[in-house]
Amino acid sequence: MANENTKMNIHWFPGHMAKARREISEKIKVVDIVIELVDARAPYSSKNPMIHEIIKNKPRFIILTKKDMADDQYTKQWVQYYEQCGYQAMSVNLKNFNEYQKIIEKCRYVLKDKMEKEKARGLKPRAMRAMVLGIPNVGKSTFINRLANRKATVTGNKPGVTKAQQIIRVAKDFELFDTPGVLWPKLDDAHVAQNIALLGSIKQSILPLDDLFIAAMRYLSLHYPQLLKDRYQLEIDLDNENWIIDTFDHIAKVRKIKPLKGETDYDRVMEVFFSEINDGSIGKITWEDPSCVNV
Ligand code: G4P
Questions:
Q1: Within 10 A of 22 (CB to CB), how many other CB atoms are there?
Q2: What pTM was computed for the model?
């Protein structure tokens, strides 16, 4: 979504960041590949700004989750974009997921040289080990559970792995940490904060909701006018100086939202709109395209 002049005072506390970073840095030592989950509806905003520093030069596989809620065209472009950046990338719908084999194969492909080198040096063959990372709500637990439910054996003591951390064996040659690394989004960037709020990844109620509503409506009117038409019979003319009030009034009318003391119930209109955005009932929407970012 285009930059808006809004300021969203949301912060991931420095203490949280330091703890998350410490935990990940510990685990990363015994990991061969990082599986980074991002939300297909905002594949840039749902990334952690410091991932390069945190995981150093570990190979990275970027998986765009929730593709069932995102714009297919943009999802395709984002996957290509990340591939062009030199990563393995794919999109998934974790609600209907059966792509275990493809994921494991891509990890094998990335780690082929490393594993062959180890073998040539006479080291005992071992399973590749992966760790899942991502910001809150991106689908990390769902992803791990999907892989684990398929074929999970919790393995015993492993070098470099503490008791609190469990490793699960998902395939003969593939292991996964059973808990993901939780990263923080770049919330000091208003554009990112808005997108993350629209994904439902931070509580919308702690943002200036009217700013979020206006920014979302502006974006939808430019990129998805048909969805607004289909859902609310709404056509927005951004050149009309009253478009914001008109939009509120229109949705209130279409959704039969009762006036409050003779006025449109703006809060209720926003509540309805955001819940329909969150549950995907307005349609498949992506809030940013690869041309607008420099990852
Ligand atoms: P996290 O560990 O990264 O915090 O995320 P988690 O797996 O808890 O997933 C957050 C929400 O996103 C869950 O919904 C989950 O079902 C949903 N989700 C994850 N991946 C996908 C996907 O590919 N498509 C769709 N449509 N949804 C996905 P929830 O409402 O919190 O829980 P639930 O009622 O669905 O279980």
A1: 10
A2: 0.90
